[in-house]
Amino acid sequence: xxxxxxxxxxxxxxxxxxxxxxxxxxxxxxxxxxxxxxxxxxxxxxxxxxxxxxxxxxxxxxxxxxxxxxxxxxxxxxxxxxxxxxxxxxxxxxxxxxxxxxxxxxxxxxxxxxxxxxxxxxxxxxxxxxxxxxxxxxxxxxxxxxxxxxxxxxxxxxxxxxxxxxxxxxxxxxxxxxxxxxxxxxxxxxxxxxxxxxxxxxxxxxxxxxxxxxxxxxxxxxxxxxxxxxxxxxxxxxxxxxxxxxxxxxxxxxxxxxxxxxxxxxxxxxxxxxxxxxxxxxxxxxxxxxxxxxxxxxxxxxxxxxxxxxxxxxxxxxxxxxxxxxxxxxxxxxxxxxxxxxxxxxxxxxxxxxxxxxxxxxxxxxxxxxxxxxxxxxxxxxxxxxxxxxxxxxxxxxxxxxxxxxxxxxxxxxxxxxxxxxxxxxxxxxxxxxxxxxxxxxxxxxxxxxxxxxxxxxxxxxxxxxxxxxxxxxxxxxxxxxxxxxxxxxxxxxxxxxxxxxxxxxxxxxxxxxxxxxxxxxxxxxxxxxxxxxxxxxxxxxxxxxxxxxxxxxxxxxxxxxxxxxxxxxxxxxxxxxxxxxxxxxxxxxxxxxxxxxxxxxxxxxxxxxxxxxxxxxxxxxxxxxxxxxxxxxxxxxxxxxxxxxxxxxxxxxxxxxxxxxxxxxxxxxxxxxxxxxxxxxxxxxxxxxxxxxxxxxxxxxxxxxxxxxxxxxxxxxxxxxxxxxxxxxxxxxxxxxxxxxxxxxxxxxxxxxxxxxxxxxxxx
Length: 765
What we know:
CATH topology of the largest domain: Thrombin, subunit H
Shape: elongated
CATH class of the largest domain: Mainly Beta
Structural class: alpha+beta
Strand content: 35-45%
């Protein structure tokens, strides 16, 4: 009875806790059906992510994901709400990885870069699943169990060549963040990192309510960030994007009124916005608060905007030559009523994006698209802009990787110009080689050919940071031309090896945009992290300061900081360490912000690791940089850098100096004649050896005979029984002397041997 009561009580305690930490089967099936695998782009540039269904109208469905999942513009200057992204090929996969999966083309109907949200639309799809409810927000609290749904690492976790199955990961809410002076939740922090590919997926409670949209992770800190549910609802309802105040006539000396044009981007996926009105005041004044309940700001002038597609425009007048701008509040009329934004100060030129006046999310570390259509990296290197399938021409003086891979033998020993496709992935091997992963025009990996780069050239390619450009699962590939000499397979390697002398990145016309070659001299200018990564031996013993990115901290073989070059690339040729005090400051002051963070770092180049041949670097100070490279905070170490044991370079083996040979002039003596009597001396030596062997044998036989006699005597004494009293022995009469027998005649040729059992040499008879 006691056990029964205990079991009932235990079940009553455990069951609710278990229920809170798991999804009910019906909720799980509903969420899985509404979550989709998103595939963006084609061929040269491809990305994958997650998304989920939020609205269904017959055979039309609307899905939400992150803007960075579908944005492959690399810094393109687009107005939120504009249709510039609509040409990006996008498809969504329902029931991904299962026998019921359906891949459907989707269109981009809204994009909100400020809040990192985008809305997709699918049409003429029968049997759409039930969407997730975005109108019923749950009450959030810290430690609340939540579940992250999506497709981490994209196709990387798929079995075979099919699309991946959905992953459901359990977590808890660790922080609920709000903007300064605001009550609305700005972001939801959850325990555990979000992996690439989770972006755009839903985060739900144990009863299936939408918490938000997975958006990013704080690298190295085990923290994930989700966009709250109310932001999703606002995007679907319709909201304001970026504002532009552009003077139609600009005069730097003007002091009076000047005409200008106000442009407002509209984010309206469902076409709910019926009208938009601007309420504005002259700039240069404190911002007025929005009345409660929300309404127009006091004393403001009212100006309706002309609404065309996803943009509202109006002509305005700027006082004082436009130097102070305007204070603007926007009013949107939507199906549910009127929406009033907070008042913001709008200067001449682009502001926002967003009616709330938050600064535009710029990424100075990311690649930017140049006016002539190139891709400019943060380090200044230009690359061809990745495009949809473009079959770059193959000039007559180069060879296609497909041709060389099919028949490599005729090219052995020759310097060839190999045209291929590459995502700039470097694969270090255990033989201290660096393989550049290349593909054929049809994006297949060659089976009979590999490309090996010299170390410095490999480090230059790795510093481009192409595999690390974006946090979603993305593949960026370029047409390249590798110049080098082809060699036969060696040892267990069955592939032919092309050792590169240079790499050219080609545009769609087959012309080289950038050429990389191995170098032995330091680049001109101040040292950078990329420079130290390439030539650590030239900086040993020096203290350097340069700009870099902090990606996180680590504690493996020493306290370390994960640094990145300005191109987001990790330095492959450096081991970076610091003190625990500085690592703790990084975790508390940087890891809570978005990573990677741009810093100005002071390091000492300690030594070269004799085993790995990498440079060992110690970080002494980090200056966290803000806008305009202004130092926001300085973090300094209060203790010594914690280095692990650094193997010394192997000492060269000492080679003995060759002995000095003295030349002597001497007469060569004739060969000596054999001395007389050598034969007789040899016979004497043999006889002596025989005598020694026989004498030794006799001595050994006598010793063994004596030891046997002693042993037999001891045995007889041991066998005599012990007596209580000694027994008197009868006197033994003296022996009668016998006449000795006449000895037998001896054989004069040999001695008579002893009996066989006592003769160790009897077997030689």
